[in-house]
Specification:
single chain, alpha+beta, formyl-coa transferase, domain 3, 4-stranded antiparallel beta sheet, 3-stranded antiparallel beta sheet, elongated, binds zinc ion, ATP binding
Length: 269
């Protein structure tokens, strides 16, 4: 009996998650993103099929896969097949892929300072900056280490070049933000200051497929496959969900469709 009630509870949770991940949830983006992460695994994007484009803005994708075996299921039970349709925002999802790629790979140009600037850092932050010197360089901040100076005295590290960009002015505050972010990350992991993130978000937006653009099946498939390769495919750089769950095909009763009255297509002409 206990097993039965557990199973009922599981079904209840999953249908609640599907509602949160679905198109009817228009109010709570955070909950949708959270639910989507539970409904889809990143590997799923590698095997999704394109059904078609909707309204020149969305990709309808179909995912078919075996339901993950649950420990409570007896061996004799048939393996359940999941069959779901998803609606994917073509701009938001391409934008997120481009954004994450830019974040990871862009080397921001730097400009040599007229006079190297000593960095007033604590001994711990000096160590952090030294260990992540390549990450700082990718961000346009070039630092020289003077080993003859004692650490924590504010003269061991010198800033010799700072980032430069046509659209954004960077300064010491941005270097402070980057070092602050580094405290919680493993050594060598890319971090970006908020100004750089905003710059990449704008660039990603401009280079992504637009709403209103007709896409062929190859282009749609590329957008889907890219989603499986990025860290956070569920929301766009602005935090909005990139996709929604549309339909669980296994819940459609095929016999009722067969029995329903034939469609009078002449009415649509
Ligand atoms: Zn955009």
């Amino acid at each position: 009996m206990q097993g039965g009630s557990n199973k009922g509870k599981e079904a209840l949770i999953s249908s609640k998650v599907l509602v949160d991940a679905g198109v009817s949830n228009t109010e709570n983006d955070d909950r949708a993103v959270d639910a989507l992460a539970r409904v889809i695994e990143k590997e799923d994007f590698a095997s999704m099929d394109v059904v078609g484009q909707f309204n020149l803005g969305f990709i309808i994708a179909r995912r078919r896969k075996d339901a993950s075996p649950s420990p409570s299921r007896s061996i004799s039970q048939e393996l359940q097949v999941m069959d779901d349709l998803f609606i994917v925002d073509q701009h938001a999802s391409d934008e997120k892929y481009n954004f994450e790629t830019l974040q990871l790979t862009t080397r921001i140009q730097s400009q040599k300072l007229f006079r190297p600037q000593p960095l007033e850092l604590t001994a711990a932050d000096e160590l952090l900056a030294t260990e992540n010197i390549e990450v700082l360089r990718q961000n346009g901040f070039e630092i020289e280490v003077d080993d003859s100076e004692c650490s924590g005295q504010g003269s061991r590290l010198k800033l010799v070049a700072q980032p430069i960009s046509k659209s954004t002015v960077f300064g010491m505050k941005d270097l402070e933000e980057i070092i602050h972010l580094m405290r919680d990350r493993p050594t060598g992991q890319m971090v970006r200051c908020s100004k750089a993130r905003a710059m990449f978000a704008m660039r990603a937006c401009r280079k992504s497929v637009m709403i209103g653009m007709p896409l062929n099946s190859h282009q749609m498939l590329t957008v889907l496959r890219h989603m499986g390769t990025i860290d956070q495919p569920w929301n766009c750089p602005h935090g909005r969900p990139t996709m929604r769950h549309l339909l669980d095909i296994t819940t459609i009763d095929s016999t009722s469709i067969m029995q329903s009255a034939p469609i009078d297509w002449s009415a649509f002409q």
